[in-house]
Design brief:
Low-confidence stretches: 178-186, 304-309
Helix content: 55-70%
Number of domains: 4
Shape: elongated
Number of helices: 21
Largest sheet: 6 strands, mixed
Radius of gyration: 29 Å
Oligomer: single chain
Distance between the termini: 52 Å
Number of strands: 11
Length: 539
């Protein structure tokens, strides 16, 4: 249903229009009735209707001023002028201000119906075009996130990153035909157009279930989803949601799908690694022919080896590895990595069945992932750097000997060494910029004007650049830092029983009270009112 606002100074006429037409049949609901343009402006600011039906001659603010206001402020809101004055000047004014239609009083019911059915079609078409544009943008940005480079920091900060998200996961879907699992490589029936349709189906199901997820046919033409979850979300809940979606896709399309899901990550810059994990799971399932419809990636540290007292837990010193990369100490780096492979050989020589080629590959991937996560802080994009030199995480699987795998790791890490050295001076300069941004936020976080764009303008830098250097320096998102500052201040203000919750909301720049309460409870585990009672009991 589209929201319709009626603006008419004669109450009887307004009520007659509102009550004597089958609006729902035509696709509309009456959102409100205002008696003049001033009331309409206040209503529009608060409620954002889709369509305004307005008289011309009204007190305080007439229909001409209202149409000018809408044309300047909300050009997406359609306007129909209903007037008893057949005045050519008004008609010209309506055309100049992009008024959708101009009707003369009295208007027959058939004319009303014809006009509003037409407006419904126009609004439907525009909504579909808008949704398609938004989907294209989000697909482009999500693809870039999965690659690890090329995305807009401003877009991610404003739209992708969510304050109530603690973890991100990647899920990849693949087809099983006739009992033979096919990772969307050999199956010719599983074509790109069909994958696009499946992605649309998945997005529709996710929207219906209010899942904070987005699905797309990605740059490798794989049906992939980015899941946003909070820390309380159990794996069983995620798996049940995915199983429901798999069943729904099968019912809608007849296609039997399976899926692989990554380990969680707390930073969206790690999504490329999550995607690699799903690819690994699919390859592993092909090898082992696992019957499960949802396959989970487990980091080695989370694997359960305690069923065998002799099971290994081969560890590597990530701090040393990173230190040698940053210091360009190739000799010590190779010695450190060689030690890992030596321990693997020794454990395998003792006849431990856990240390097979699969386990060695996992160790190599974990080393690559761990180092990649760390060097983000040094203004280095590992995925972009690797791609430029035609390296990929899972290439390490192609080397069948420990020596070959060691050489591959050294080649990748030498790229990291060179780039980290290049970025060393830049990091020191950007560190001061990040601290300057932090000082601005610390001073002005209460203002509802505070945003990436606002701060970027103050320091004369691009918002995307600001977001990146802030994240690298402080290891948290700009938005998250602003939110945490406001939440800490809100606790202080709540200790004063005379200050109302809505007053705190306004003072600290929250969009609305309900949003503040939701974020506060998520952060501290209790509502603002409950916190106030606890704080009062301490006094």
């Amino acid at each position: 249903m589209y929201k319709l606002l009626i603006v008419e100074d004669e109450r009887a006429i307004a009520q007659g229009i509102a009550n004597s037409n089958p609006w729902e049949t035509w696709g509309f609901q009456i959102a409100g009735i205002c008696s003049n343009g001033e009331e309409a402006v206040a209503f529009i600011e608060e409620n954002k209707p889709d369509l305004v039906l307005s008289d011309i001659r009204m007190p305080k603010m007439d229909g001409v001023a209202l149409m000018q206001y809408l044309n300047e402020k909300y050009p997406e809101i359609k306007m129909i002028i209903l007037s008893g004055y057949n005045d050519f000047e008004y008609l010209q004014m309506a055309i100049r201000n992009h008024v959708a239609e101009y009707l003369l009083k009295p208007t027959l019911l058939d004319e009303f119906e014809q006009l509003f059915r037409k407006m419904k079609r126009v609004l439907d078409e525009e909504a579909q075009q808008r949704q398609e544009r938004e989907t294209q943008i989000r697909s482009r940005e999500s693809n870039a996130l999965l690659r690890g480079y090329g995305y807009s920091e401003e877009y991610v900060e404003a739209n992708f990153y969510q304050k109530d998200t603690d973890a991100y996961r990647v899920v990849q879907f693949y087809a099983q035909q006739g009992g033979d699992v096919d990772a969307v490589v050999r199956d010719r029936a599983w074509q790109y157009e069909r994958k696009q349709s499946v992605a649309k189906l998945l997005n529709r199901f996710a929207q219906e279930d209010e899942m904070r997820s987005f699905f797309l046919c990605n740059y490798e033409e794989q049906v992939t989803g980015i899941l946003c979850t909070d820390e309380e979300t159990e794996e069983a809940v995620i798996e049940n949601n995915l199983l429901g979606m798999l069943d729904a896709v099968e019912q809608a399309s007849g296609l039997v799908l399976h899926c692989a899901i990554s380990a969680p990550c707390g930073d969206y810059r790690m999504l490329p690694q999550c995607y690699e994990q799903t690819k690994y799971c699919i390859g592993r399932k092909l090898l082992l022919d696992i019957e499960k419809k949802v396959v989970w990636y487990r980091q080695i540290k989370d694997e359960k080896f305690d069923t065998d007292p002799g099971s290994p837990m081969i560890e590597f010193d990530e701090k040393n590895i990173l230190k040698y990369i940053l210091n360009r100490d190739r000799e010590q780096l190779k010695k450190e990595l060689s030690g890992v492979f030596d321990r693997l050989r020794d454990t395998a020589a003792k006849g431990n069945a856990f240390v097979d080629i699969h386990y060695v590959n996992r160790i190599c991937m974990e080393i690559l992932f761990t180092v990649s996560r760390e060097i983000y802080r040094y203004n280095v994009s590992p995925e972009k750097l690797m791609n430029e030199h035609n390296y990929h995480y899972m290439d390490v699987f192609d080397y069948l000997t420990p020596e070959g795998k060691l050489d591959f790791l050294m080649n990748v890490f030498e790229l990291f060494m060179k780039e980290c050295w290049v970025q060393k001076e830049s990091v020191s300069r950007t560190g001061e910029l990040a601290r300057m941004v932090k000082r601005i936020v610390d001073q002005e976080y209460r203002s509802n004007l505070i945003s990436l764009e606002y701060v970027a303008e103050k320091v004369h830098k691009n918002p995307s650049y600001i977001s990146k250097v802030f994240k690298n320096e402080f290891d948290c998102n700009f938005s998250s830092y602003v939110t945490d500052k406001r939440l800490e201040k809100s606790r202080e203000l709540l200790e004063d029983p005379l200050v109302k919750v809505y007053e705190i909301t306004e003072e600290l720049g929250w969009a609305d009270v309900s949003n503040f309460i939701k974020v506060f409870k998520k952060k501290f585990g209790i509502s603002p009112d409950e916190y106030r009672k606890v704080a009062g009991g301490r006094r």
